Amino acid sequence: MSEQPDKIISGDLADDEAAQAAAALDDRRARLVRGWIVPSIVGTALLMTTLNASSVVTALPAMASDLAAEPLRLNIVITAYLLALVVFLPVSGWLADRFGAKRLLMVAILLFAAASAACGLAQTLPQLIAARLVQGCAGAMVAPVGRLILLRSTPRHELVGALSTLTMPSQFGPLAGPLLGGAVVTFLSWHWIFYLNLPVAVAALWLVRAYVPDVPAQPVTRIDWKGIALMGVGMGALIYALDNVMRDDVPAVLLTGCAVAAVVSMVFYWLHARGRADAVVDLSLFGVRTFNAAVIGGAFFRLIPGATPFLLAMLIQVAFGMSAFEAGLMTFMTAVGSLVMKATAPPILRRFGFRRVVVVNGLITAAIFASYGLFSPATPHWLVMVALAAGGFFRALQFTSTSGLAFADMSDAQMGRATTASAIVQHLMQSVSTALAAILLYALMTASDAASLTTATVTPSFPIIALVSLISLAWFVRLPGDAGAAMTTRAR
């Protein structure tokens, strides 16, 4: 009589075990999608923009020759993209909340691809500038909107791993771009720098549509047009002034006017935005300690990744006399170090916590960057490559840590505004750091009465920028010991 109940109980247990195994498998698949597949897909779109932005620099001489323009005038090809990028960034978060992040990301990829095709087909400099302006508007939406999708679709304790995958293109693109640009210009033509975006865009569109979750639109307030105008004028004027401060063909009056306009616009924006919940950049977010430290403190750290490609190019190509392709192969080791970091960031942050990592790793990153100033033409190439790989690893770890820390204490309702504010500071510092590095080199040349760049004039720039980056520690050391704990601990 007891055999039948025993069989029933045994069958129920087997069913429960099978159900638990199936649930565990589904959970692993879901974590794989959230932690690797979706960030990699969004990162592919981000890589398209970062590679294009950095590889264009290498192609400027070829563009000047083909378009019958002065090489110095081709600087506007870069400036036009950056201006459109920073001016349009403030509205990207509002558009994502209004129309849905996934839909906006697909539109941005499509628009970037169309603008890339227009750049490749340009026959005159004005046509190329117009296409680059459209490309900058599209690029302004890709990074913040892609990050917003991850923030709203990934559990907090999985965000560090997802963000480390997503931020990899930010480290990889600027360093691989010159190598790609040099190869394309050498073996094909400068037009292909833009045409190569088209198959990447097609693949990214299909993958986003198939695998990226559909993050719903959010309730939005009235768009802050006045704030957008003030922020756009301020950032655009600042970038233009810094980018052209060393050019003899730009009047000093114009540069001074741009600098004054930048300061005045930012002051008026602060007066306009304080206490306003609908401001395009919500100043109340900076009252959150983790966000304030990650964004403001992290801005000083970002001087290092922003200046690295430019300073290494000046040192290895100009001072050491290596070719662009040889220099690209050598500096590519920095990207290799960044890729290795991806798998190690989550366990490091779980073991030591955000505060200890950003403080200690900030010191390590600055020390390695300062050591680049010891390079000379006699330094063995293998030693240079090891130092560059180590620098890429620790720099990417700091970048991932600050990116995750910024959103540790943000509510779902704040994610869109926090993403916009963080992206604005990141892109602004990326633009400003290169200009500041160029100004620093000019000052070092002037101080040493050198007629051209030499090893002796370039190498001091590395320890100087490393010391300035340590200002970030003033924010990091004041963080509580458990800062960002929600990002590394599974909710129970």
UniProtKB/TrEMBL annotation:
Keywords, sorted A to Z: Membrane, Transmembrane, Transmembrane helix
GO MF term set: transmembrane transporter activity
Signal sequence coordinates: none
Domain Major facilitator superfamily (MFS) profile, first and last residues per copy: 38-484
GO (cellular component) term, any one: plasma membrane
Main localization (coarse): membrane
InterPro entries: MFS, MFS_dom, MFS_trans_sf
A Pfam match: MFS_1
Membrane topology: Multi-pass membrane protein
Record bears the keyword Nucleotide-binding: no
Acetylation as UniProt keyword: no
Cell location: Membrane
TM region positions: 36-60, 72-92, 104-123, 129-150, 159-180, 192-211, 223-241, 253-271, 283-304, 310-336, 357-375, 381-407, 428-445, 457-477
Protein name stated in the entry: MFS transporter
Upper lineage: Bacteria, Pseudomonadati, Pseudomonadota, Alphaproteobacteria, Sphingomonadales
